[in-house]
Structures are given as C-alpha cells and as structure tokens.
Amino acid sequence: MRKILLIVFTAVLCSSVTAQGNGFDLPEVLDPDSIFVEGDNLYIVEGDICRMYSIARGKYLGTFCKPGEGPGEVKTMPGLSAGISATPDGKILLEGMNKILYYTPRGEFISEQKKGGRFFRVNRAGDNLIALRMTVEGKNGKSYLTLSAFSGESKLLRELCRQEMKDNDKDIEMVIETIRYSVWGNRIYVVANENRNPVIVFGPSGNELYRFTMETKTEKVNDEFKKEEFRRLKDDDFISMMVKREGGWENFRKKMNFIFPVSLPPVREITVAHERVHLLTYNRKNGKEKFIITDLKGNLITSVFLPVPMQSSFLAKMLGRENKFYAFSPDRYYFLSEDEESETFRLNIKDLEGLK
Q1: I need a labelling partner for 252 at 20 to 30 A (CA). Which of 74, 185, 233, 340 fits?
Q2: Amino acid 20: pLDDT
Q3: Measured distance CA(94)–CA(85) in Å, rounded
Q4: Structural domain boundaries enclosing 67
C-alpha cells in the first residue's frame, strides 16, 4: 500500500523525479527486469513494458510498448521479460516471445517482425540477427544452448558456439555455465573463458575475426563466496517458489545437489559499449566487483572495482537470459539499487575518472 500511494503522489507531481547527487530515485518502478542506457535515455524493462527517463534531467518520460499481440505490443513469459538492445542504425529493439519490435529512441513504434524460430536474446549485428536458441542433437539426445547468426528474415546462417545443457533436475549449478555475449556495431563479442583468451570476436555473419590474448586471473571458490551465493539463491523469487513447494529451505537443500566449480571462470559477464569492452569478473572486495575494461582489440585500459549491481533471476540465468542492472557510458557507470525500507528503486551514477 505504501508503494502504491508513493506512485500516485509522484504522478500528481507531473510524473517527474528529482536528481539528487549521484543519481535519482525511480518511484514509478515496481519490479524491474533490466536496465539499458543509450545516450541520455535510461530504459527500464518491467515484464512487457518499458519505462523511459532522461538521465540529465532526472525526469520520468513515460512508458512505451504494452502487453498483447497487436502492433507495437509484446508478449512475454512469467519470469522472462522483454529483451532490449540498440541496433547499429540507432533504433531500440524490444524482443518478446514471438516477435521483435523496433522503436525510436523516444519510444515511438516503427515496425515489428515475427520470429522465424525458437530463439531468444536477440541483437542486431549489421543487417543480421544474433540470438541464442536451444537445440537437441539427434544422435546423442543431448541439449545445447547455441549462439547463431540469422539473416534479417530469420534464416540460419551459421552457428558461432554452443554450450551443453545439464539435464539432471536435482543439480543446481551455483556458477551457471552459459553463453555470454554482447554486440557492438557489426561485431559479436563472446566470452570464451579460457585463461589467456577470454573473448572471441565474430563478424555479423558469424565468421571468427580474432581473439583476445590478455592475462586474466581465476579465483578459487572459497567459503565466503559460497555463503554469498547461497544468500542470493535464497532471495531469488524462482527458487523461493521451489523452496515453498518442498516445505522449507532445509528440505529443499537436502533434496538438491548444489554444485560449485573448484575455480571460477575468468569472466562473469560482458558488456561492449562506446568502443570499450567491459568484462565483469568474480573478483570481489569490500562489497564491490572488479571490471576489466579494454579497447575493442583487448588492449587493457583499466581495472576498477565498482559497486555490486542487482542480479537477474536464477531462471533467467539458467536460460542464458542474464538481464543486466548496470550500464556504461564513456565516462560513467550506472547501476540500479533498491531501498528495502521505502521499497523505492534508484539509479546510481558513478563517474569513471581517468577513462576518457
């Protein structure tokens, strides 16, 4: 009730927010799924709608897209929100279950196209679509998560890489093995998680161009890391539903196998933006996590510890749809946080000094 009253009060005050210091509050946001920054615009996806703000003015600009199957409308699954990205020609791409929609940066509907197959986490690279999909090998019956390039008409061009999916219902991977990738312009950057070659770069048709050859450090899984991951797992809505079904956390914990690797992969997530590659690692210190920032060829620019952002749901992680609650501009780091007492979300802004 407190949150509803706060939203109504905010609407009366012309639906605007006030920038305070290094960020501003977002009283309109109820249950965010991801954030995306393009220019001065902040986009926050909530299920099948997208909220838009001016960062410079700290002002709420309204919503675009809405639930449904008509023109400009999007349909999603519970726990899996609409995907959002920018296209090389400056459009905003929103992805639902069965179609891809294009908007202007101001949220004006342009066009849409049906998906030509069961793929998801769609981006555009040049004129082609880059997406994940589930495939099953007829010979061995194994399931794979694959990253592939498709034509603009959704015709498969080439598979870039694949990751075998685990089929044991009782195993929970605490460090999920999945394909992590990011698109910038007409190139695709894929995390390889090899010690010296953490990133593979592909052209828009899926042809490999080059690999990074930089040194990265792998972290051992210790008790502190396990404790933090269990805390995050217990707070997850999807896991909470499973725990309730099993009659409590202890019953759930006895039934499931929680699997940790001996060592953590060098890279946890990748975000390519503004001619830079931002690699989020598992290296944690004083409540912050380490980013390695390079140019597009993998030449080191800096390493920096930044505040820990919110996490995407466990279900999204399992399906390779890690939604991000942080973003980068050339000289700033944006991340979402929630004040649990007031139930209000906030966009935090941190200047990245020395990275110009």
Answers
A1: 340
A2: 42
A3: 7
A4: 1-114+326-356
